């Protein structure tokens, strides 16, 4: 489809007829016993019979007999439509079995010839078959309406306009990050956010491909399955990112448990749309669960992550499967803007800091199995211990895991590093404040991190603050912050 065609469809979206549609009640009759009929909602039918026939009486007032009418249907099925017994449109070829059925497109509109419309009652009959569905679908009929004619392509494009509008932001930020990565301005820590953006961009392109690719309903089902799979991948990458931020040593276990929960949900939830929403919700719950312990300790990153996961989960629950058409991409666009700004504003500072450090201070070498990390001590903000491992938090945002104990690392670092807890040690140069907390004192670091102070380490920390501030060695008042001590 050319750019001109897309522009024309955009104009049609704004000029779509808005006439009132006749009220329609649909009836399904048994093929073996035509007298046995029942009222049905088309959107609730499973289409599990060889052929399903729906009929309805459409009442047209005498003064509206000349107004155009059409029968519009979005369904994973082949369709034949009759108006007062006369065929007016066919989407594919319905048949009693797979061999005799020709699959139709998902969206179809059949205009009613004016000569067939009569004042008063008109009978419309729709025959459907769905033998080419290769997975069970909870709602094969998505929409069935009778009213003013609609352009099926324009209707589809109007539905995906929010996705088209927001897709440019993640795509633009992804291209920017790729350029910065190639230029050496950002490092490997950016690869995980870039992977999430790449998955979202591919999802968005596949989402709007329906506008330009007229595929049949079996391919529509394949499209939905792939979209659900990409949603699961994005969710797992989000869990990995959450682990990197708050619990790096549990990344593998958290990812495996989240994937198992997603697979379990797919067994109990039918339909690719609902399955995708369930898997995304599970990923949000996992991210929130990972962040909560650190959030309870007052870590800002964890608080932000938990709040975001709760807000997104509530939004998705309220909107339902349609969240994946609009809200999902709006969220990705907002996250892409934040990530792009953070990346653009920080790389030059990081490189300049590294160059100046390399000229003025000796580096320290920390091991991670067979690997070695050569780090500038002044760029280490704090260290976090977990069993026989340690996570080194750097000023440029990196989190480096090493297979060394906290005690062993401190023995290699120069003066200025102080243990404040059995699991934490800080670089005093990055200390910005200290205050009483709900369960003892806490320290604030220059990057916004808040860490607890163990009771047995409080006196040493007070002496360290006093020495850093150049005050006498007597202990300062614990109610004073580090900032106030340093200003004395």
From TrEMBL:
<feature type="transmembrane region" description="Helical">
    <location>
        <begin position="326"/>
        <end position="345"/>
    </location>
</feature>
<feature type="transmembrane region" description="Helical">
    <location>
        <begin position="302"/>
        <end position="320"/>
    </location>
</feature>
<feature type="transmembrane region" description="Helical">
    <location>
        <begin position="221"/>
        <end position="241"/>
    </location>
</feature>
<feature type="transmembrane region" description="Helical">
    <location>
        <begin position="253"/>
        <end position="270"/>
    </location>
</feature>
<dbReference type="Pfam" id="PF04397">
    <property type="entry name" value="LytTR"/>
</dbReference>
<keyword id="KW-0732">Signal</keyword>
<dbReference type="InterPro" id="IPR046947">
    <property type="entry name" value="LytR-like"/>
</dbReference>
<dbReference type="InterPro" id="IPR007492">
    <property type="entry name" value="LytTR_DNA-bd_dom"/>
</dbReference>
<feature type="domain" description="HTH LytTR-type">
    <location>
        <begin position="364"/>
        <end position="467"/>
    </location>
</feature>
<keyword id="KW-0812">Transmembrane</keyword>
<keyword id="KW-1133">Transmembrane helix</keyword>
<feature type="transmembrane region" description="Helical">
    <location>
        <begin position="276"/>
        <end position="295"/>
    </location>
</feature>
<feature type="region of interest" description="Disordered">
    <location>
        <begin position="468"/>
        <end position="488"/>
    </location>
</feature>
<keyword id="KW-0472">Membrane</keyword>
<dbReference type="GO" id="GO:0003677">
    <property type="term" value="F:DNA binding"/>
</dbReference>
<feature type="transmembrane region" description="Helical">
    <location>
        <begin position="190"/>
        <end position="209"/>
    </location>
</feature>
<keyword id="KW-0238">DNA-binding</keyword>
<feature type="signal peptide">
    <location>
        <begin position="1"/>
        <end position="20"/>
    </location>
</feature>
<protein>
    <submittedName>
        <fullName>DNA-binding LytR/AlgR family response regulator</fullName>
    </submittedName>
</protein>
<feature type="transmembrane region" description="Helical">
    <location>
        <begin position="160"/>
        <end position="183"/>
    </location>
</feature>
